[in-house]
Amino acid sequence: MSEELRKAIGGVRDEIDAIDNELLALLNRRASCAQRIGEIKAQHGEAGFVYRPEREAQILRRLQELNPGPLGNDNVSWLFRQVMSLCLSLEQPLSVAFLGPLGTFSESAAVRHFGHAARLLPQVSIDDVFREVEANHADFAVVPIENSTEGAIGRTLDLLLTTPLKICGEVVLRIHQHLLSNAPSLGEVRRVYSHAQSLAQCHEWLNRSLPGAQRIPVGSNAQAAQQAAAEPDAAAIAGDAAAERYALPKLAASIEDEPNNTTRFVVLGRHEAGISGRDKTSLVMSAPNRTGALSYLLAPFTDSGVSMTRLESRPARHTLWEYVFFVDIDGHRDEPAVQAALEELSRRAAYLKTLGSYPAAVF
């Protein structure tokens, strides 16, 4: 390296060091502000209300709007989620239940929403995830609710019917499925472990590339990675988190059949989220069993100018050949238009439960 080049780089590195010093001071100043907010909340009897999803969403959206680059908005969101996560942990570390073991897409969704400072509590089933929060053993739950190619997660919908928990956030996660194995080549793979949904999402790739391999569904992709790691002629379909955690090489990357394969997760807690300015409301309802009943139920949304973004039918568990309908609409339940639509809907529906209003996912 020439002396001229060394001096030029050295000058830029000195500038980086000075910026790092400023960043360190500012981050600690921000952390001190977070501690002061915790103290103020405690003085007013609200010490338990540490996490405000609407406030976090507003911060991330504002920073994305201000972002001049070269960092992309997704990088800015990731960075400031970690900062907020660390600051929240100074007030009170958040505990988050999710479908385990470690290495699942649910873990990735939990970390994406709450940051790395959250205390992660992997559970063996979606039922257990709900129970951890219902029993006050965890602050929040993160559960999958629908996949862009395989549709709704039935068990999550069933549990939402009866839980007292409220949806207070959502996470939209791009799903990249990889074939992980210690086998030296595809030709050596005799068994493929994965969650049933992931096997379905990679069905065509498996037909082309591993037509003779046995496909074995297991409880989660992380469990699949654990089993594949112990068997030299086995493979797992799982994501990057499982590959890293269980030290499994990628025999093939991004093998999902649909290039835009995405899973939506919901965040569940014991408290309602406030208005963030860009919100959704989820609800479940049933219609009287007569011609035109569903159209009659949906009319209040049109009349109030409220946009419906999702409609999913599900068999009612208590009555044969009866159905409930899961609906997502734009807006918060406390906004006048949504409030008017819900009031009219409550008069028309045989059954109505508002699952929660929450900030739309910030990417």
Which CATH class of the domain at 279-359 applies here? Alpha Beta
Mean pLDDT: 91
CATH superfamily of the domain at 279-359: ACT domain
SSE pattern, N- to C-terminal: HHHEHEHEEHEEEHHEHEHEEEHEEHE
What does the largest sheet look like?
A: 6 strands, mixed
Function: Catalyzes the Claisen rearrangement of chorismate to prephenate and the decarboxylation/dehydration of prephenate to phenylpyruvate.
GO cellular component, one term: cytoplasm
InterPro entries: ACT-like_dom_sf (IPR045865), ACT_dom (IPR002912), Chor_mutase/pphenate_deHydtase (IPR008242), Chorismate_II_sf (IPR036263), CM_dom_sf (IPR036979), CM_II_prokaryot (IPR002701), G/b/e-P-prot_chorismate_mutase (IPR010957), Preph_deHydtase (IPR001086)
EC number: 4.2.1.51, 5.4.99.5
Explained architecture:
- The protein is built from 12 helices and 15 strands.
- Among the domains are: 178-252, Periplasmic binding protein-like II (D-Maltodextrin-Binding Protein, domain 2), CATH 3.40.190; 279-359, Alpha-Beta Plaits (2-Layer Sandwich).
- Strands 1, 2, 3, 4, 5 and 11 form a 6-stranded mixed β-sheet that branches. The protein has a 5-stranded mixed β-sheet with strand order 8-7-9-6-10.
- With 363 residues, it is α/β, with parallel strands linked by helices.
- The model has no long low-confidence stretch (mean pLDDT 91).
- Strand 1 (95-99), helix 4 and strand 2 form a beta-alpha-beta unit.
- This is Bifunctional chorismate mutase/prephenate dehydratase.
- Pathway: Metabolic intermediate biosynthesis; prephenate biosynthesis; prephenate from chorismate: step 1/1; Amino-acid biosynthesis; L-phenylalanine biosynthesis; phenylpyruvate from prephenate: step 1/1.
- Its EC number is 4.2.1.51, 5.4.99.5.
- Residues 3-95 form the Chorismate mutase domain.
- One of its GO terms (molecular function) is prephenate dehydratase activity.
